Amino acid sequence: MKKIYLYLISAITLCNVANAQNPVVLQQHSVTPTLITMSMAGVNAYGLIGSDDNLSKAPNFKFGGMADGAGITLNHPAVMFDSVVFVKGTMATVTGMYNPEGTYLYLTNHEDNLGISRMYLDETFKPLKGDWILNSNAGYWRLCSATMAKPEINGFGPVFFSGGESGAESLVHAVDPFSKPAFKNVSPDDSVYWDQGGQYLHHWGRWSTENAVPLHKDAYPGKVVIILGDDDFEGQGQIVMIVGNLSDFKNKNYNNVTVYALRKVANFTTLTGADLDKARFERGLTGTAEIDVEFVEIPNIVTMTGAQINAFCNANNTMSFGRVEDIDFRKSMTNPGAASRETYICVTGQVWGSTQNPLSSSFDPVTFTGFWDGTSTSYGNNGYTGFNTVATIPGSHVFAMSGQKTMFGRVYKLLLDPTNHLKGKLSIVWDGDAKNSNAGDIKNYLMNCDNIMATEDYLYIQEDPNRYSGGGTSTSTQTGCSGCPINKFYFNYENHDSRIYQYNIATGAVSIFLEQDHRRTASDASYYNQAASGGGSFANPNPTGTTSSISRPGDWEYGALVDVSAETGKPGTYILSNQPHSWQSLNYIRPDGGSRPTPQGYRLEASNLIVLSGLPEKSGTSMFSMAAETPTWHWFDNTTATSPIYSGKHFVTTMPGNYWVAYGTSMAKSAKKEVNLVAVTVSSTNLQEAALTEASFNISPNPTSGDVNVSFENMFSSTVYINVTGANGNTVATATVEGKGTHKKVFSLGSKGIYTISLTSGNSVLSKKVVVE
Fold first, then answer.
1. Taking a C-beta distance cutoff of 8 angstroms, is the pair 477, 465 a contact?
2. Whether the Cβ atoms of residue 241 and residue 295 lie closer than 8 Å to each other
3. How far apart are CA 733 and CA 724, in angstroms?
4. DSSP secondary structure letters along 108-141
5. CA distances from residue 29 to 53, 104, 126, 498, 525 in whole angstroms, order as listed
């Protein structure tokens, strides 16, 4: 018992520093530069981790490439006994500590590594170690966007919903962030229906999923409503709704759900031709007007293939989009449930005339004015695009376009009915194709919206340009543009690297938030531009690491932008996933240890995560919409309690028995916020510890000429015995002190020499020496 006691005390002593008020320190932890350029004053950027970093507690861990969807949660808190003392079997103190493995867990999808990494951060927000919770054999599909569902926001979890996106037959993963790594090097006989341990959510349907986002728990009390984006570039992308009961999701039963797809409210029996197409395809929605939409149920979805689901959607006139990429809901501190019913959706455009964009001749042409530098040639989305880097735009031309989907993408708002989640209104927030003749208008330069993050007053919209300088192969000429091939557009909008734009929800004003930095003029330019053809899909990556060409504007893209304000205790703090596609070498092959390659082979890309601080969330004030809080310990006397019996590091009870502790933020917003329950059994027979602490025991002055003051704190109502002995061990003075609290005693020590003063209470013994001169 004595050896165990010493171990626990040392563990607590080491971690007491971490329990200081808000220990988080935002600073550069990575050896890799951030690879971004900030455009907004007051926002700072710090490199958190990159593929070149070695973590102290996991030197063999390699952070993968194409960092995309991500989420954070608190690690299971370890509870240890610091000072556990029983006086007459009635009183005890227990102390919780931070998890020595790391206070926070951060999960990241690595899109073309087909896996999910897990990083452990300590209480200062420094990465300590990492592992791969899913490698390519378990991840199986390209893993793009993701959402970490949490009890305080969504009412259940934590669970990481990771979207599989490798065509129409993909599934969504439900990953327990605390689970052991799933390294199963198997080759399934039937990859379409492969299942491993219930990680794949068959009952949600087969979609080429980008993200599956549960709304706030107060949006529809008692229900879980999830908006899913179908990034099906080979067919028709869908906006999908998954509905379940909150009680099921709390019990980790994620498959008792009903699935719906969005369609326009219309009498489809009377629509034909172009009118039917306009009701079914996204380009039938124009301007800023809201249209009524509804969600139609897809019955028996668990037995359907992805192709059958697409056929059902088409037969039932659900609305078809380009590639439904990312989704987020609006945040609010005062009314989070209502705010979350206002969702924003990025739909990526598709190159006109490519096989990914089946054209419909029944659509009326859409005409707009675009800029042209006369030099861009060849393909866009699917391959290499010739490019001229000049920013000047010498002229403009009018182009007529026909088709079902947009070229440069759109941002939509889906506003759900407050009482009926299956009804709502859909409208366009930002149309990338609606360009005008004003070369200074930032809105003209949206190059394919991809990921999105919503705060209370702003949208943060990320570009994924995909080299959209041109597209199509037809040699026919267009009406109104002599010599311009039809469906082949030479707009040189790629005069900038991929940006994140800040969009004011109330005013529609757009500002550049940040832009990627390819370091083309830096001394390390070749290091971050190693790939053949300078970027893109890298079907034939350059394995030698030598520079083939400097990456072109728009070659890189972004992944998730995750709010970590509550975890850091610092408002406006976010983590950005960065995908510098041309940063490649053989050093980055198969970082997950899996054996399943993508169709292009094993990817050789690296990537990095960046911490942003001071990100504006609410306009017109320096305050932020979501108040950040420093986590603490909360103590409960039963598992169903809605309020803690005590909040703080030290907990004193007069009743032996079972207690539970939760580590999280304050209980003001949500009972048992971020709860990870740990049972603590207090027993007067097997736990005994010190009533006295070394820190409170003081002797002064020391040395002394004769009189010495002894002070100490007794944590309990117990008897403390004070004993003073000389160098020969003989007792020269004694005293007895009763009761809890701070006590002082004065002793007169006449003879010169070294004395020992000891305090004893129960099993607690403290000793210090004093010199009399």
1. no
2. yes
3. 5
4. EEEGGGTEEEEEEE-TTS-EEEEEEEE-HHHH-S
5. 9, 16, 7, 24, 21
Calpha distance 518→450 (Å, rounded)? 19
Residue 359 C-beta-side C-alpha neighbours within 13 Å = 15
Nearest C-alpha neighbor of 764 from the set 83, 3, 80, 89 = 83
pTM score, whole prediction: 0.76
Please state whether the peptide bond connecting residue 599 to the residue before it is cis, i.e. omega within 30 degrees of 0.
Answer: no
* Pairwise CA distance, residues 218 & 216, whole Å: 5
167: left (phi over 0), alpha (psi -120 to 50) or beta: left
Closest CA to 584 of 606, 600, 601, 602: 606
Rounded Cα distance, 465 and 496, in Å? 10
The C-alpha atoms of residue 42 and residue 479 are separated, in whole angstroms, by 49
Low-confidence ranges of the chain (pLDDT < 70): 1-22, 77-100, 182-198, 233-235, 350-404, 437, 439, 466-495, 531-550, 552, 599-601, 621-632, 649-657, 663-691, 715-718, 762-764
Residue holding tokens 């929800």?
505
Whether residue 659 contacts residue 637, with contact meaning beta carbons closer than 8 Å, is answered with yes
Name residues whose C-beta falls within 8 Å of residue 680's C-beta, 6 or more positions apart in sequence: 79, 94, 658, 659, 660, 661
CA distances to 465, 493, 557, 609 from 553, in Å? 9, 10, 10, 21
Q: Tell me, what amino acid is at 329?
A: F
Residues 177, 178, 183, CA angle at the centre, nearest 5°? 85
